[in-house]
Amino acid sequence: MTAAHDAVPHDAAQKFDASRAGEYEQQSRIALAGYDACHELSACMLAAALGSGRAARILVAGAGGGAREIVTAAALEPRWRFTAVDPSEPMLALAVARLEERGLDERTEVVCGTVADLPEGETFDAGTLIGVLHHLPGDEAKRAILSDIAQRLRPGAPLILAGNHHSYASQPLLLAAWGERWRQQGAGPAEVEAKRARILQGADPPHSEQAVADLLRESGFAPPLRFFSSLFWGAWIARRAPGAA
């Protein structure tokens, strides 16, 4: 892998410091209506794609925080093992603590770094990239992480990709509803405005669902299938194209 593939994910991880890591899971449940449902369906989609009850190695990119992808999938499929990768030490520490609480640390290899840091030639039966892509600035960085994942998946292996899409400012009604979601959960007018300003400045999601499909295609994946949606958020499953380099 090239150094360019490493640089941007590490830079993006800097905003997930210890203070933000501590509030991440609680805040995510408000910002994403259906947080648990998305993770549950992601596990179900992987199990359906791989075949339930089979042993499998799952690459979890951006695993920091509450390790919800692993906790949910591990409960459904006891023969799955996981490699959790995240460049943010505070976020990864939260994930490790959760895995230890659930007794899942023995089923999980933890790597503080990026997917590009994994040994070349190591392959996985499936992968997940949940809540990461919209934090990476520009299409080049997005293609880089998707390409790094594709190169470590077996041909035909499924990837769960989930995150925000649409330019936030281009969808004023969705943005207003997102603000109402925070108000619904007890945030006052000043807090709602602060959070709206923060999301407008702090992320760079793909600008459409077609842009998501294009990024996947350019990175070595077959056309995706969307299985979950919530305001700006979408979740898709896509398989590594058999002929991808």
TrEMBL record:
Record organism: Methylobacterium frigidaeris
Renumbered residue ranges of the record's region Disordered: 1-20
Protein's UniProt name: Carboxy-S-adenosyl-L-methionine synthase
Biased segments, Basic and acidic residues type: 7-20
Membrane-spanning segments: none
Highest classification ranks of the organism: Bacteria, Pseudomonadati, Pseudomonadota, Alphaproteobacteria, Hyphomicrobiales
All residue ranges annotated as the Methyltransferase domain in the record: 58-156
Gene it is expressed from: cmoA
Domain of life: Bacteria
